[in-house]
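Reopening closed ticket. The problem is back. First fold of the pair:
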Amino acid sequence: MTAPLLEILIIGRNGQVGRELQTSFASMGNLHLPGRDQFDLARPEQMREYIQALRPDLIINAAAHTGVDLAENEEALSLALNATAPAVMAEEAVRLGVPFVHYSTDYVFDGSKNSPYIEKDVANPLSVYGRTKLAGELAIRALGGQHLILRTSWVYSLHGRNFLLTMQRLLQEKSELRIVADQIGAPTWAGTIAQATATLMQHWRDGQPGPWGTYHLSGLGETSWFGFAEEIGRHLQLEGKACATLTPIASAEYPTPAERPLNSRLDCSRLQARWDIQLPHWQAALTQCLATQR
């Protein structure tokens, strides 16, 4: 017997993850993808009215204030989009008795740990972005219900503004680039996040969910921003394109308004063990992403 199609509400339709979710969930149900005119994250009552009228079977929030440096001067807006809005969605999901999936970030940690972070490690964000994302996590957890908070890191795709697209352009425009080499983490393709989310929800739909809660979801392995740039350059060279010379530098040589954690590594073993999610190595995911560009 074929399972009935789900009514799936996806917030953040034009974002990196939101675009990939539309592909990964296309066969699972009817996708509802409201824009800001229908679903403004800064207007809680409008969000409530939309959800209550739709009564979706699943809510996925892929929207956020992701401008890490901009957030330093937009704390009120960042709090509204990253904390208050997710709390409203989570509350309505609990009211309906449906799952709520929300994405968070490695930036909830201060990066002082010498090994990959696990879910139970103490959060200590260094930036407004990190603090407001943590506030969103805490609000969702306080409400309980069937929720998944998926922390990820260094997200990129072939859409929007991200490190991959910036490097592809600059590596071909410049003769030399200075790239930070002392921040360590794992680049994560938005397609990996979307595919893993679809698998998680398929397990739930099949009546075999793992425990709800907070999990880490990023590319496997680790590198620096410098190493990521090197790998992007290697792919360009395989296509016969000229590339800039890369020079590694310390974070102190590239000051930014928001402080970044030096260690952004996330231990994803709990997601694999509890939900049977097989995540790709970050280099394999990059190759897969770039293959869709051709």
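Second fold of the pair, where the issue appears:
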Amino acid sequence: MQNIRNIAVIAHVDHGKTTLVDGLLTQSGTFGEREQIDERVMDSNDLERERGITILSKNTAITYKDTKINIIDTPGHADFGGEVERVLKMVDGVLLLVDAQEGVMPQTKFVVKKALSFGIRLIVVVNKIDKPAAEPDRVVDEVFDLFVAMEASDFQLDFPVIYAAARDGYAIKELSDEKKNLEPLFEAILEYVPAPSGNAENPLQMQIFTLDYDNYVGKIGIARVFNGVIKKGANVMLAKSDGEKEIGRISKLIGFLGLARTEIESAQAGDIVAIAGFSAIDVGDSVVDPNNPMPLDPMHLEEPTMSVYFAVNDSPLAG
């Protein structure tokens, strides 16, 4: 069974989230030597590039050692509460990225509180420690006080801390450590984020948490596989959140690695993939084994939610 970690990233605008994710992609070796990384990978939506905010959740994946790390971006504020809740239900750990001078900003507190309420343990990444006015120790104390105020558990209050300067491509466990690369952050993800629950031997259970659209194959559902194995060409049952059920065939099964979307033959419990084949697929729907139709509980999304599709490319699987 493949080693997998599923994480979300929470950060205020300008605290270095996209720079950090770019660094993780580059230093993991996920890109080939000839591949070039566009700056601000996670800000792929035109509006987001213009405004520097994250509205839609997007995901990418990297491979570090023998582990696949799925990284999902999160909106950084309460205006997109439904999107936040969906994303956090898909992950087992969170990177909370905070500026070493500014600390946790008000807009991110909603997302932090939601993550804590789900029982998730956060890894605190204090970024931009190279700023002349940086006060990383004060910022860590502020994070601790915030978690206490949000009624975090003792386990969550014992959060790991990584210090970083994402722009310069390094992370350290202690402020006195040598500044070399992002390896301490990779290692923290493997150590502190639990592997996904679920079993590939169980009947198929997966849930759609966001949508995409392709000009060739139509609606695409991006989902986490909670149990079992999903295969291209398989007949599955789509269990709608309103109780309706539909049998259909997986026409495309798409995996993520770096910025590429690639057709794959199968995926198993714990992974995050995209599927096509259902015109009626929607957020919150379950995809299950028609011979053992046990859909996951509906997500009970908070309002307001967004129904937004964005074209990925004219080619159905262009990286």
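Update: turned out to be a display glitch only; the data is intact. Residues 33-57, 300-319 have pLDDT under 50 and may be disordered. The first helix runs from residue 17 to 27. Please close again.
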